[in-house]
Amino acid sequence: MEKINLPKASKITSPNPVAIVCTQKPDGSTNLATVSWYTYLSYNPNMIAYAMAKSSYSGELVRENKKVVITIPSDNIKEIVMKCGMHSGRDTNKISKFEIEMQDIPTSNIKVPLHSAAAIQCKLKEYIETGDHYLYICDVEEVYADDKERAVFSWEGYSKIASAKEA
């Protein structure tokens, strides 16, 4: 075996889950941020975790509000996933800039992108410093899905977004 770095290992271990974290801004509007990793922690009680850079505006919002909706984007909006990961909501209203169609879920004030395969409504339980990221550990409150939508994953070290069938 050859010695490699961790970014190269992430290419070898593709695909990886990808999600859009939806948080509420102080004005009540929704902010969107792409995360390149999440995982289910427990089914009793229902818990999920995701990681974000310490400097993330969405991370700041979830630490303040304690509410977040983690959406699993579908292949219908895969271009938006990359765009949402390349701009900060602190400076950019991503929803209007990228003309993202949004929808309500019944039990949250936080809107989610249309064409989400799933929406996992959560309450922040705790967050832990993990190097240059925080690990957000959340209690799941509600889960919604649209079985007509096909989830996407990140490929090639997070340089491509595609469904598993497409790649």
UniProtKB/TrEMBL annotation:
* InterPro entries to which the protein is assigned, alphabetical: Flavin_Rdtase-like_dom (IPR002563), Flavoredoxin (IPR052174), Split_barrel_FMN-bd (IPR012349)
Q: What is its EC number?
A: 1.5.1.-
Top enzyme class: oxidoreductase
Q: Which cofactors? A: FMN
Q: Which keywords does the record carry?
A: Flavoprotein, Oxidoreductase
User: Does the record bear S-adenosyl-L-methionine in its keywords?
Assistant: no
Say yes or no: keyword Flavoprotein present.
Answer: yes
Query: What residues does the Flavin reductase like domain cover?
Result: 14-154
Any one Gene Ontology MF annotation carried by this entry is:
oxidoreductase activity
Q: Which family does it belong to?
A: Belongs to the flavoredoxin family.
Query: In its UniProt entry, what is this protein called?
Result: Flavin reductase family protein
Which organism was this protein described from?
Brachyspira innocens
